[in-house]
Amino acid sequence: MNYNIIVESEALEDLQNIYSYITEQDSKNKARKFIFELQKKMNSLSQMPHRCRKSYYIEDEDTRDLIYKKYTIVFKIIEQNVHILTLFKQRTF
Question: What sections of the chain are H helices per DSSP?
Fold first, then answer.
């Protein structure tokens, strides 16, 4: 079963902020590459999104976390859709 991927406005803003941060800290080329990798991971959720852990941040059976290179992608599964809610870098303790 294939799920549709819907990137919510907050997640789009998060992607832009991540891009800007990497551009400032490193280069536009690395920022583009990393954003492409994040988008690829988000698109992978069209197949078996329930494989990801239940969210640590939102207590709901259908809200899940996908971890990629210290970033968390929080998404919610609603019928045949995967809604990407937000993305953020995990804090190191």
Answer: 9-25, 28-44
